Amino acid sequence: MNKDRRPYVFGADNSLRGDFFRKSRWNQLPFGVRKVNLKEMPEQEKKSPKGKFGRTSKNISVALGREPESLDLSKRHPFDLALVRIPKGKFLCPYHAHAAESELYLVVSGRGNVRDKDGTTEVEPGDAFFFQPGEAHQLWNSGDEDFVYYVIADNPRSGGATGDSCYYPDSGKWAVTTDGMEEIIVKGKEADYFDGEE
């Protein structure tokens, strides 16, 4: 499974998530309340091979019990919530557009730039912004301290015909889901609709 593009990655056996669940207090609360404290959550770090892209994140939804690989909607949660930190001089990920996913951002601290089809906008603490499916976007740290924000995504990635895919306009690549949950990155060229079909 290609997890390089996914912002929130845990070990194949979910051991980190499991360790956190055993140590967290939410499962000890009455009435089924699920609670986690961000101070107790481990950060997941992600870096690109040459270092242009880098971030750490705390996947709050997974810590609250979301099962990202499940096709059962009751186990997937209707949205993802994560706290993301981009270090000085780093980009979150390449310029991209989701086919099915919407994302809502709320800046907590630091300064960042947000690129979309109309150019670049600077954002600061207290700013909120939103991208619908098909709207290409990119975030990076433009300040002298960490750029920190919450992101809420509506979590449509379920594989098959209903899953999300991502298009990268700068490089002409696609991130697509194959059978089940395996994600691959492909780069192609324009072809006739019936090419290879008859």
Question: What report would you give on this structure?
Answer:
There is one protein chain. This protein has 198 residues and is mainly beta. The strands form three sheets. A six-stranded antiparallel sheet has the order 1-2-3-10-5-8. It has a four-stranded antiparallel sheet with strand order 4-11-12-13, with no helix packed on it. A hairpin with a 2-residue loop joins strand 6 and strand 7. The longest helix has 9 residues. It is globular. The two termini are 31 Å apart. 20% of the residues are buried.
Write the layout of secondary structure elements.
Layout: H1 15-23, E1 44-47, E2 54-59, H2 60-63, H3 73-76, E3 80-86, E4 97-98, E5 103-109, E6 112-116, E7 119-123, E8 128-131, E9 138-141, E10 147-153, E11 166-168, E12 173-177, E13 183-187
Antiparallel strand pairs: 1-2, 2-3, 3-10, 4-11, 5-8, 5-10, 6-7, 6-9, 11-12, 12-13
Q: Give, in order, the helices and strands.
A: HEEHHEEEEEEEEEEE
N-C termini distance: 31 Å
Q: Tell me the major beta sheet.
A: 6 strands, antiparallel
Helix content: under 10%
Q: Report the uncertain regions.
A: 1-30
Based on CA atoms alone, the radius of gyration comes out at 18 Å
The side-by-side strand order for the widest beta sheet comes to 1-2-3-10-5-8
Could you tell me the strand content as a percent range?
25-35%
Mean pLDDT score: 80
Principal-axis shape equals globular
What structural class should be given to the helix and strand makeup? Answer: mainly beta
Beta-strand segment tally: 13
Discrete helix count:
3
